Amino acid sequence: MAKYNFTVDGKRVSVDAQPEMPLLYALRDDLGLNNPHFGCGLAQCGACTVHLDDEAVRSCVMPVSAAANKTVTTIAGLGSPDKPHPLQAAYVAEGVPQCGYCINGWVMTAAALLKKNPKASDAELRDGLAGLKCRCGTHVAIMRAIKRAQSSQA
Amino acid sequence: MDRREFLKTSGALVISFRAPSFQALAQAGGKPALVPGELDSWIAVLPNGDVQAFFGKMDMGQGLDVAVAQIVAEELDVGADRVEVLMGDTGTSCNQGGASGSTGVSNGARLMRRAAAEARRVLVERASAQLGSPATELKVADGVVTGPKGSTSYADLIGGRYFNHKVEWNNQVGNPMDIKVPAKSKAPADYKVVGKPMPRRDVAWKVYGTSKFVTDVRVPGMLHARVLRPPRAACKVKSLDAGSIKGIRGAQVIRDKDFVAVVAPREWDAVRAAKALKVEWEPMKAPFVPMKDLYQHIRNAKVVKREDEVKKGDVNAALSAPGVKVVQAEYEWPFNSHASMGPGCAVVEIEKDGSCNVWTGSQKPHFVRDGVARLLNLPPEKVRAVWVAGPGSYGRNDAGDAAMDAAFLAKATGKPVRVQGMRADGTAWDPKGPACVHRARAALDASGKVVGYEFISKGFSRQHIATNESQPADSLVGQSLGVAPNPTQIFGVPGESYGFENKLLGWETIPQFVDHCSPLRTSHLRDPVGPEIHFGSEQFIDEVAHAAGEDPVAFRLKYLTNPRHAAVVKAVAEKSGWAGLGKGKGISFADRNGTAVAAVAQVEVDRKTGRVWARKFWIAHDCGLIINPLILKQTIEGNVVQGLSRTLFEEVRFDRDSVKSVDWASYPILDMGDAPESIEIVLIDRPEVAPSGAGEPTIRVIPAAVANAFFDATGVRMRRAPLSPEYVKAALSKA
């Protein structure tokens, strides 16, 4: 057990844990956050995605020790109904999620991608979102929402 | 009555608080018993005139709650934004069957419509007495009742109080539950709210992370649990070394017969303990056939039950008549997994007085209540099951097992318990969609006319376990404890109206590999056996059309006898510009309980990699009266893409005694790179026809539309699903 200090959605936090414990369990179990979801525990789906500094990472396989002294952002910290991230606003406008359990992966990955490449083409988006899962089949709506967000920023 | 009491009994559940038990709810504040024969079980008017509707089904992202709100608002003449729909809580709603068979609107909302109409009738009657004008002279607008001598409002008439008004219940439970009321519902021509596009209500909280999934429910003192499924089907525990998890803080083993679980106060410790626990299981019994022999096994297996659902004329005579040309083919579909986005999860708390609260992602929470009551030997009124949005649904997935596991463990530990599976519990251990083989024959006379047609599906029953969790025998914990399951033998036939003069549509089921604790046990998966059957039947229609030298659209239009069926085929052909579409196009059509859907797909096939890209889809959809075209389109889109995933990628892998599809690598589903570029949808609205459901119908036309398009692109028939790169390459190299 060791103590790890980091920032989550603007708040300084401290977690006592084994270094190999995935960050996901620190966020959900120790800090009581709801949003990053357990989907597979294998970095195969994206439901647990958060930003670690500016990178989208799969918190289900990222050891908590790797977050020490860094900044973690969850989807709730990305934006809010009052101050939405453009992707969140676009997702709401397009009514994208159905069951919604996969949403962290798509929104947090796309947010990191657009930050680096705001004008990403269709092909770049499809590549950049490879490996994320959505069981409800909202993929076409996701693409519409990302393009809406891109044009709102253009 | 006291307003606070009222709100406590009917308000939305606040998850962090202990939920009052069903009995306490029913008796608090003078509320009549929560039974279908009381109007108060369906509708409440709050002190400010807002309306609550208590719905005994649930919505998991297809906007059913919005449809119910629109229908209730329409009948009551209030704004839809003033109607809150409380769903899937056994403490506030009657058992309308949960999510089931696309009946949310057709059955579920039909009852809500009658209840709302009756509420309006009662309120207008009371207004009439208060205002001294006959009811016929009163008008209602947004909950305000106005007549020649003045006005009043729903808030004044009843706000915060109960109707105490009986309605006539048909004594049915589940999907067929209905009520009879003196009130007449509105005529569709008068609709102002029904038929309008209105956005879903669960999008924002999901996008901003401002509310909770069932996985986020936390109860003070709760333990985290992981259940250890046997490594092999139907295999028993030989021995167990509880000492193997001694080093993990607070971790404890719970074992009863062949049910093994670990619990710990911290979730990560439960995960670690489940990995570390040493269990010696019985050796392999090899109940399954080798996967490569699956379809041969199905062909040769003895038939447990056969049913000929459509029988017209003499098919055998037609097929053996001299001079006819016989077309025949067989189609194969593998086991499919629900593979929900997250493994099933539930939290169960047993209170000091013995009453039990269950938070579940199951789409049939009322049946979860019944199952938990049976498992724990409690009267059902001591159990309250609350549906909270879960990590996926689409049938009997692993959510019900999670609830039953959690209930068992809460009793065993005396503490609240949260169970969530690991990935393999959702992919390897969920109930499966059944593998099957379809054999089809048709006879054409010299003029090319179809004179005989036969389509027989043979496969595992679609219900080795029931479609709900009301019986411990249908749960893995129940089976691990030795409760014998009692499977139902049922399959299905194509939904169509082709007017072939001699026609036989039937099915045959075969024995299960093993009768308990099998990861290949079957139960309902979105549109049970719909994609499976129509993959075959709608490809076969194309094969017959080709044999007759006819265009697949023209052929369907020639034989479809139901004008609504023909209309969707025509509409999709027009929308897609069928005649002018290049190579790689395919059409498919089906009916599902009165909803007619046709799809055109256009695909590109990469012969080197075997990749099929279904680039474009066009859909024509007729489900009778449309409640909300915006959400209907979103629901159809989801069906298209989920159906495409099952068509192109999904196949449960197994060896002689276990399922080898355990995660997203071994059970791939559609990736963004394979998503269609566009889906264009034509909605046919038929206000005069009662709505017939849209949650599932579209998924059944997708597989054959893609396979027919594949044939058009390559000249090769894919009679085995999925059209995965591996199978496509093999098929093309043989051609």
Overview of this structure, please?
The complex is a heterodimer of chains A (154) and B (735). Chain A is of the alpha+beta class and 154 residues long. Chain A has two domains: 76 residues, Beta-grasp domain (Ubiquitin-like (UB roll), Roll), CATH 3.10.20; 75 residues, [2Fe-2S]-binding domain (DNA polymerase, domain 1). Chain A is 37% helix and 16% strand. Chain A is built from six helices and five strands, in the order ββαβββααααα. In chain A, strands 2-1-5-3-4 form a five-stranded mixed beta sheet, sandwiched between helices. In chain A, helix 3 packs across helix 6. In chain A, 57% of the residues are buried. The model of chain A has no long low-confidence stretch (mean pLDDT 97). Chain B is α+β, with helices and mostly antiparallel strands and 735 residues long. Chain B has three domains: 203 residues, 2-Layer Sandwich (Aldehyde Oxidoreductase, domain 4); 156 residues, Aldehyde oxidase/xanthine dehydrogenase, molybdopterin binding domain (Aldehyde Oxidoreductase, domain 4); 347 residues, Aldehyde oxidase/xanthine dehydrogenase, molybdopterin binding domain (Aldehyde Oxidoreductase, domain 4). In chain B, the strands form seven sheets. Chain B has a seven-stranded mixed beta sheet with strand order 11-12-9-19-16-17-18, sandwiched between helices. A five-stranded mixed beta sheet of chain B has the order 14-22-21-20-15, sandwiched between helices. In chain B, helix 3 packs parallel to helix 4 and helix 10 packs parallel to helix 11. Chain B is globular. Chain B starts with a helix and ends with a helix. The N terminus of chain B is likely disordered. Chains A and B meet through helix 1, helix 3, helix 5 and helix 6 of A and helix 6, helix 7 and helix 17 of B.
